[in-house]
Structure formats: structure tokens, C-alpha cells
Amino acid sequence: MKLPAAMALLLALISAAAQAADFDAAQTRRILGHGPWPPAESADRSNRLSGNRDAVRLGAMLFGEPRLSGNGAISCQTCHRPDHGWSEAKARSEGLRLQDRNAPGLLNVRLQRWFGWDGANDSLWAAGIRPILKDSEMGGSAAATAKLLREDAPLACLAQRVAPDYATGDDEAVLVLAAKALAAFQETINSPRTPFDEFRDALAANDRAGMARYPEAAQRGLALFTGRGQCGMCHTGANFSNGEFHDTGLVFFLNDPDRKPGTPRRADPGRHGGIAQLKANRFNLLGRYNDDASGQASIPARHVEQQHRNWGEFKVPSLRNLTATAPYMHNGSKPSLRDVILHYSDLDEDRLHSDGEAILKPLKLAEGEIADLQAFLESLSVPNDTAARYENLRREAAACR
Ligand code: HEC
Ligand code: HEC
């Protein structure tokens, strides 16, 4: 078929489907843009252990390993709980000390481009080094991590399979090996298809019976999401995130329980600080541990520049699996999805950057619209078996001889 004919057919299909569901052609195009799910998988070029089965097992073992921390009591799993969408119920995480931010859920984390709410890391593996080394978080060290991987029998067995000569490397190289195995494991924490994905594919196929199975409230919420709400301007694509940073008018002062009277309140600089940290981090992809010889993976780090408007910007989170990951936002300040929706509905425009974010306006939603938007967001969540698979991987790992 020649291209114009194919286009005409596609447009005809789109407009037929649009009538059935009351979505106009532009909205239909936007809805189709939120799929297909699951997206194609590709290996992380910066991590030579990406996709390696033994590295996945080693990573699963390390994820629940409290000996990576200075006090022997904190593991990744402390804050990224498998039964809480790989996040936790606390508004702000607590490691050795209280953190400034909420622990993000790790489902589909492989699809992120920047890591952390401020994007201070440009690879999934480097994002696992930060918590290990940070004094207030796990307070571990390269030396202690390397010792553990050399001396603990199952860990050493797996590390040996993954990198036969690892034990002769220096401590920092072993720390990076551990982080890359952690990343290989986290790449496997993916969520399945949701009612929204069924609807989206039915819409693409003009399958009216299939479309009718999607609850009407969710359909109305989707229309709001892709229409007047303009949510899809930032929450784009199959994972509902453009991977970039925006200001949504949240209060950026930290509510600090430890603040001494008379001292100034601290603010979270968001992306502005994240770029500075990224540039200063020797584990970034411009450094020696990037396994990508092509130079592709390090392009973002090479080109990103700190700008004034980055102050108070945070990463656009995915909207999948939200029912498991309350509370919400970088500071955990919104206890429920309804609270997030009310934030957008009653938005305080004075808090938005004067020079950016013209997209966001207070939506002044009616009660029914709030419920519809919530029904749509809930249709992006389904139970998943990642917790059980994690336990299986850990059992397999422990059996390494
Ligand atoms: C004390 C709680 C805590 C522990 C322990 C912890 N994390 Fe996190 N994690 C967080 C918080 C909080 C953030 C957000 C950090 C930020 O924005 O600066 C985060 C962010 C991340 C991210 C970025 C996710 C994204 O979507 O941007 C990854 C990946 C991650 N952690 C993996 C790990 C791994 C691997 C470990 C163990 C080595 C670990 N975390 C240990 C609290 C924790
Ligand atoms: C200008 C870009 C932009 C637009 C438009 C936008 N968002 Fe967001 N959204 C963000 C950013 C950035 C965050 C994280 C903010 C933070 O934590 O500081 C966020 C956070 C969220 C969260 C919390 C997710 C979590 O894991 O904490 C939800 C839910 C959400 N948005 C839904 C919506 C809905 C619904 C709309 C439309 C009414 C919308 N967003 C419009 C950028 C946007």
C-alpha cells in the first residue's frame, strides 16, 4: 500500500473509533500514543550486565542485603518495598537519617532516562550507588561492599559467574559491579497490561466491543486527561512520562522537624541541584565505568546545562501502578490520588515559575470530573507478580555453588 493510502485508511479508522467513544481525532491520536504496552525491551548499553541472568540473581540478592549499609540494618528493600509498588508508605524516606524526598516506586524503572526526582543520575546502576554511599541513607562504602562480595559464599559464587576476575579488581570496581547487578535486577521489575492498555488496543483496532469493556468513568477521565486537563503534555507515551523536569507549583520548602527555631527553612532545589550533582559525580556516564563504547549513552550528560528555570523542577513520574505507591509527589506531600487531582484543580499559579509552565492552569474540576480522572488513573494499575518473582530469584541466587 502506498503511504497516502495507508494514511487515509488509518485516519478513517481513527475517526470511526473516535465517534464510537466520543474522542476527537486529535485525542484518539494522543490516546494511541500512550501505548503499546509492554514497550519493546532493549539492553542498557552502559551496563554490560544488563540482561545477564546471573547478574539479575545477584542483583536480587543484593537488593535485600542489609550488610550493604553502615549499620547492617538498611537495604534497598527498606525503602523500596516489593509489596508497596517498590516504594514505601512514608512521605519522606528514612535511612540512617530522614531524607528530603519520597522513595519512588521502581516498577518499569528501566524506561526512565534520568534517575532520582532531580535526575542526579544518568544511569540505573549509578542510581544504586548513591544510596549505598550516602552518609544519611545507607552509609556504606566501596570497601565494605567489596569485602561482602568477596567473602559471602552465595554472593561470591554469583559474582564469579558474572565477572570471573572480579575479586582481583579494586574495591570501587567491585562496588560498580554490585551496582550493575542491582540494575540488571531492577530492569526485570516490570508491570503487566492494564484495563487502559486493553482499551487503547481496542481503539487502535476499532474493536467496539473491546472498547465498551472499559468503564465509562475511566473513559470520561481519559477524555479529560487528553483534553482540557492537558495532563498528557508532560505525562506522555506508554509510561506516561516525558522523562523531563517541570514545576507543578508544589511548596518547595522542606517541612523539617529538626529545624532549630530562628534558622531559615530549607528548600529543595530539584533539578537545579540534580544537574550540579550529575556533573560532579564520577559514576556518571562520562566516567570510566560506562560500558558503552559507542558514546551514545553519555550524550545526555554531555549536553545537559544548568539553567535558572531548573530551580524547583522535578521529574515527571510515570502514572502506572499508582494505586500501590501512595503517598505522592517528590516530597510525599499528597496522601491520595484525590489530593493530587485537587492540587491540579486548585493550582496556585503564583507558585509556578514566571518564565515557564504556561501549560498548567487551575482546572477548577467539578466533583464528577475529579472522580472520573481518578477512575482513569486507577485503570493504569493492576496487581503484579514482581514480589513473588523477586523471592524466586533470591532462592535461586542462594543456591549458587
Ligand atoms: C533510605 C531509603 C532508601 C534506600 C535505603 C534506598 N533508596 Fe532508592 N530512593 C530513595 C529515595 C528517597 C529516592 C529519590 C531520591 C532523589 O530524588 O534524590 C530513591 C531513588 C531511587 C532510584 C531512582 C528511581 C527513579 O525513578 O528515578 C533508584 C533506581 C533507586 N532509588 C534504587 C535503589 C537501590 C538499588 C537501593 C539499594 C542499593 C536503594 N534505592 C536504596 C530511597 C531509598
Ligand atoms: C507541566 C507538566 C505536567 C502536567 C501538565 C501534569 N503533570 Fe502531573 N506531574 C508532573 C510533575 C513534574 C510531577 C512531579 C511533581 C513533584 O513531585 O514535584 C507530577 C506528578 C503527578 C502525580 C504524582 C505521581 C507520583 O508518583 O507521585 C500524578 C498522579 C499526576 N502528576 C497526575 C497528573 C494529572 C492527572 C494531570 C492533569 C490534570 C497532570 N499530572 C498534569 C508534571 C505534570
**Overall number of structural domains:** 3
Distance between the termini: 57 Å
Strand content: under 5%
CATH topology of the largest domain: Cytochrome Bc1 Complex, Chain D, domain 2
- From the spread of the alpha carbons, the general shape counts as globular
How many strands appear in the DSSP assignment? 2
For the sheet with most strands, the description reads: 2 strands, antiparallel
Looking at CATH, the homologous superfamily of the largest domain is Cytochrome c-like domain
Provide the descriptors you would attach to this structure in a database record.
binds heme C, 2 strands, Cytochrome Bc1 Complex, Chain D, domain 2, 401 residues, mainly alpha, 16 helices, 3 domains
Describe this protein's structure.
The protein is built from 16 helices and two strands. It has a two-stranded antiparallel ribbon with strand order 1-2. By secondary structure, the protein is mainly alpha-helical. The chain folds into three domains: 14-41 and 193-252 and 314-378, Cytochrome c-like domain (Cytochrome Bc1 Complex, Chain D, domain 2), CATH 1.10.760; 53-190 and 385-398, Orthogonal Bundle (Cytochrome Bc1 Complex, Chain D, domain 2), CATH 1.10.760.10; 271-310, no CATH class. The protein has helices at 3-21, 25-32, 53-63, 76-79, 124-133, 142-151, 153-162, 171-186, 195-204, 208-212, 216-226, 271-280, 299-303, 337-345, 367-378, 386-398, and strands at 245-246, 314-315. The structure holds heme C (HEC) (2 copies). Residues 229-231, 233-235, 246, 248, 250, 314, 316-317, 319, 322, 325, 328-330, 337, 340-341, 344, 357, 359-360, 363, 373, 377 line the site of one heme C. One heme C binds at residues 68, 74, 76, 78-80, 93, 95, 99, 101, 103-104, 106, 109, 112, 115-118, 120, 124, 127-128, 131-132, 137-138, 182, 186.
